[in-house]
Amino acid sequence: MVQDESTTDELLARLRDAQRVLADAIEPVLRERPTMEHVLLSLFLVAGTYMYWGALEFSPAAAEFPRIMAGATALLSFLILVRNYLHAVVPVLAAVLGGYAVYTGALAFLADDGGLARILVGVGLLVATGAFRTQLVDGAESFIAEPMQVLGEDDLIGDDDDETAADDESVDSDAEGDSGAMYVYEIDDPKGPVVTGLLCTGYMVLTFAIGMLYATPVFVAAWALWVGMDAAKGAALTGLGLVCSYLFYDVIQSDISEGWLTGWEPTPPDDLYAWYVDPLLQPLFRVIDRYVIYPLLRLLTDATPLGVSLL
Amino acid sequence: MTVETFLGAIDALLTFDTMVWLLAGVIVGIIVGGLPGLGPPLGMAIILPLTIPLAPADAIILLVGVYSGSMYGGSIAAILINTPGVSSSAATMFDGYPMSKQGRAATALSVSATASAFAGLFTITALILFSPVLIELVLAVGTPERFLVALLGLSMITVITRGSFAKGLLAGAAGLLITTVGSAQPIALERRYADSLLLFDGIDFVAVLIGLFAIAEMMKLAGQEGGIAEGEVTIDRAGIKEGIIETVKRPVTVFKSGMIGMVVGAIPGAGATVSNFVAYSEAVRASDDPDSFGSGNVEGVVASEASNNGTVAGSLVPAISFGIPGSSSTAVLIGGLLMHGLQPGPSMFQVGGELSLTYTMLLALLVGNVVILVFGLTAVTRLGYLTKIDTDYIIPMVIVLSFLGTYALRVNPMDIITIIVFGIIGFYMVRYNYSVIAFVLGVVLGDIAEDNLYTALQLSGGTYDIFYNPFAHGRPLSFLLSVAIFLLLFGPFIKARVERFRGE
Amino acid sequence: MQRRNFIRTTGAVGTAGIVGLAGCADDEPGDEGPADDGAADDGATDDGATDDGNGGDDFPTDDLTWMVPWSEGGGTDTYARQVAVPMEEPLGQSITIDNRPGAGSLAGSEWLSTRDPDGYTFGTINSAGAHFTWRANEVEGWHIEEDFDPFAYSGVFGYTLIVNNDVADEYGIDDYGSLRDAYQDGDIENFGYQGAGSDSHLTTLLLRDNYGLEYGNEVPYDGGGPTMEAVISGEVAAGFATNTSAVNAEESGEASAIVNLMDIDLTGTWPEIDRIDNYGDSLGWITEFTLTQLAPAGTPDHIKETLSDAVEHAVESDSVQQWSEDTGNIVQYGDVQESEDLWYGIVEQMEAEVDAAIGGFDEFLALAQE
Fold it and tell me: Among partner residues C11, C19, C25, which is closest to A310 by beta-carbon distance?
């Protein structure tokens, strides 16, 4: 892809420097090179935590499912983030969770005889922390890290997190990015996805501002510009974009001509035509009608008895 | 089944008018379904008002043709540009798109056509012959069973996840978490995490799918040179023939997946969405080489495509016999029936009632599958050329169509935000090997699982035995499903231990 | 033979083309005719393409949009599509149905309240149901009564109770009294309603408190469809269904309608159906929903009249009457005054009734969140 390198490169060079400084700072904490994966994990962690707290306001029945899922999300993302510290973190976590489970289970038991399961789970975790620490950590590591190890010697009682899966995976030195479910790919141009993501975000913002009808050709034009397409092809593609959005406007949903947030409505093409182009063309149409079309029609009605009243 | 009525139905079908409507319906369906983000429900909804002036039989045949055609059409976009038209196309993406990347788009498309057609043919025949049995099945499936089916789907995460188990679970949990946004109906009058009316109905999962797959994929393609296909793309008879042969070589998979599609698809409310994932996962599980799935294994495409058309047949059962929709497409179909004065119910299967119309409709579907086969093998495979075009041209068009199509889903601006957010998340998830499939399963199944769990517990008075004790509430089907889930989750584990035990 | 066909086809196509082109020029002044010519697309617009709707009897001069706050294929949508067709005739314009589902009809209603009151956009909202949903969700920013001008109503539907046939046969349930007794005796236990905090949930509580329905277990489902499904399959012994879905349920052969919870007479469909007001006060204020046609508040009177007359014409047309007979959907026309009398004051009435019954809406909402 040919593109205008100069300004983007400068900006990107500066960003890359900043990124490097930040990464250097974070690296000792994580014990591995920070990447977007950590951003992703942090996102999950934050979202999970936020939704867990949010769920506290709901009624008990409505809160149960969100709390379990948010808790699982937060817990798992946390574990993966600290995967280089598992030998320290896991026992602590198991102890804390175990204690908490026993505590709440006991409360529930005293209140209404419930919570027995929770007490058992909590006790199990505490025992595992105390007596089976190495196995606990090993289990956690094989659970979290990749590739998958063959099933270990001991079972672990406790919550599902520490249950190791049973499918084997051949040990592969290049573990990262190699999986059966997803395909591996090389990225030739790291700017590509980022800029595409930014353009899409811009498209979305523009849609909220002036409506999808016109945001679409603007987006396509911006894309064509960035990618360095020939003017002709770029224009054709932009035209195609406009045609698509216009068809959608006409056939499916006409409110894409409005920006949802602002209420602005740049004039849609059909109104543009009706208000500006059509009045100009009217005289021409009238002439054609009077001197060409109607005589033809009269000729036809005379020649073939269609029995249709045309005027 | 009365032979007379059946023959009469064949008569009615083979008139010029009816065939024209059928042909038109199927072809329109394929086109509409093929456009990313549009898909069957929208296509059928657009056609619906146009059917008002038609005679009931023609109208229903047109609608059903669109339904069938668009279920097949959704696979085209899935295979070529990794964009699902409906959630059911997602399973085809998993192996279909990698095949396109390998330059084998023609093969993938022809597999899609062939598997769809074959599965469609025998499931509809089964439907014609065995509808009473299926109706009984529909009746037997209640709330606990629906929850267990959703749980079965979720357990597939363990089958499908490759790599770190924690990552797969995280993806699944996050997907499930997404579904908690919005109204907590029927559980409570609560809007969870949704102060705005726009989020009242939650995050639309088709929008999530479009973001996760289409937008994320376009972002990824933007970082690569050339066309979608990384290698040489050959669209020639060899590719097409290969597709046919590959499908024919796998009759067991076609049959099994088709049946799974039909049976699971018949489960009202949940089935039509889940069936393809279940069939795909089953193919993975039963295969000798499960790791190859997700990188262009033909069997994956065969399974999901066969199931896709089986679902069309299956979902008709609750629709025609009870007026109960299994998906938004069938909801529109039922609307169409009602609009033309036809009542879903036993009368649709009675000689004195509308049995002849029902037979005509099913036979029309049968013929429709032949149309799909022919059209698919000839015209559609040519579409493989799309994978050759430089992605610079494809990317913006796909993004535009995704935006437009997403908005068409339910005219909600939140959906546009959804596709961007999940597009970016999806891109990085793939990059760092987080199972997107697990996420998808979570998103698709979350509501079904939670709602039915709650209602089932209400039914049982709070105890869980309704799920596994066939005697407690008289639900043998629940018991069977629970056993299946247990085996799925712990089977390999138990097997390994038993083998080790034996080996010592 | 072929040649004649060819000429005929070409001639037809050619004529059609020419006639089409003939419409391109505006007609001479003084003629009637659409303002937009045949060459331009006539997309349905939210606001009138020409000037505002004040003055002049020219309304409507452009296409109209009919908003339905439910998705395609649903009950209200089917009603609208049936009525829209004959309604186009007296108006001389085409009507486009715009489905805006979401938030239990609140999303579409909110959208309608923000449209220009020029008569080109109107919608159908179901009275009582929408009022209840609006109140129960404590919606802010717009008011279900104050922000709309009703101009007609076109049909009614509402709740009945359906019972599973096997259960009914076994315990001899054929009316409300025997249903109530069966629950009281413990013969049956489960009762299905359409979602926590819904109008059917409130009705469920009222049936228990004021009409003696002592179900052991009230089970919520996600809407009418799943509830009906549950009764058909026998998962619950009885539950709610609208009168139109009850017809479907009966058609399945697995369930029957045994109680009419509305005030409207259903003996046309079920000659012997029991009525809830034989056992106590009327429940119509919460169980009966009228399909009301509304325009945004501030729509001029003469426009409302025009639209209302068109609705009347449509409702009384043969096609709609026939459809009504065939499908059991009740069509009934009410004019501007009648629709206003119906639409306004419902929220207040509901508040009063809920106060008397349970002690207030907040009480109910608290109950719904348990």
Answer: C19
Distance CA A130, CA B395 (A): 56
- Residues in A closer than 8 angstroms to C38, CB to CB, are none
Q: Among partner residues A62, A76, A260, which is closest to B187 by beta-carbon distance? A: A62
Q: Check whether the bond before C34 is cis (ω within 30° of 0).
A: no
The letter for the amino acid at A11 is L
Q: Give the contacts of A5 (CB within 8 A, at least 6 positions apart).
A: none
A245 close contact with B: CB closer than 8 A = yes
B192 SS3 class: strand
Mark A180-212 as b/e (b = at least 16 C-beta within 10 Å): bbbbeeeeeeebbbbbbbebbeebbebbbebbb
Do A27 and A147 lie in one domain? The reply is: yes
d(CA A89, CA B88) in angstroms, rounded, equals 41
Residues A137 and A202 in one domain: no
- Those residues of chain A that have pLDDT short of 50 are 1-2, 147-184, 310-311
Q: Helix or strand or coil: residue C152? A: strand
**Cβ neighbour number for residue A119 with a 10 Å cutoff:** 17
Neighbours of chain B (3+ CB pairs under 8 A): A, C
Q: Which residue of C has its CA nearest to B182?
A: C103
Looking at the complex, does the CB of residue B336 fall below 8 Å from at least one CB of chain C? yes
Q: Which domains does chain C have, with CATH numbers?
A: 64-157+289-352 (3.40.190.150), 158-286+359-368 (3.40.190.10)
Cβ-proximal residues to B175 (8 Å cutoff; 6+ apart), any chain: B438, B439, B440, B441, B442, B443, B444, B446
Total number of domains in chain A: 2
Assess C281–A contact: CB distance below 8 Å, yes or no: no
Cα–Cα distance, C273 to C261 (Å, whole number): 10
Same domain membership, residue A234 and residue A125: no
Judged by a CB distance cut-off of 8 A, whether residue A62 touches chain C is yes
Q: Are residues A120 and A222 in the same domain?
A: no
Chains in contact with A, where contact means 3 or more Cβ–Cβ distances below 8 Å, are B, C
Cβ–Cβ gap A294/C22 under 8 Å = yes
The pLDDT tens digits of the residues spanning B41-69 come to: 767 777 776 777 788 888 888 888 888 88
Chain B residues inside the 8 Å CB shell of C248 = 322-323, 343-345
In angstroms, rounded to a whole number, what is the distance separating the alpha carbons of residues B55 and C193?
37
CA-angle at A263, arms to A260 and A267, nearest 5°: 105
| CA C134/CA A116 separation, integer angstroms | 42
Enumerate the residues of chain C whose CB falls inside 8 A of the CB of residue A59: 369-370
A199 falls within a domain: yes
ipTM, two decimals, is 0.75
C257 and C160 in contact (C-beta within 8 Å)? yes
In the prediction, which pLDDT does A295 show?
Answer: 87
pTM assigned to the model: 0.78
pLDDT of residue B468: 75
Judge whether B472 and B234 are in contact, CB under 8 Å: no
Whose tokens are 């009919």? That residue is C66
Query: Which residues lie across from C125 on neighbouring strands?
Result: C292
Could you say which of A144, A162, A180 is where a domain stops?
A: A162
Same-domain status, A70 and A139: yes
Instruction: Give the residue numbers spanning the domain of A222.
Output: 191-257
- Domain limits of chain B? 3-226+236-462
Residue-level pLDDT at B352: 62
pLDDT tens digit sequence for C296-326: 999 999 999 999 999 999 999 998 998 888 7
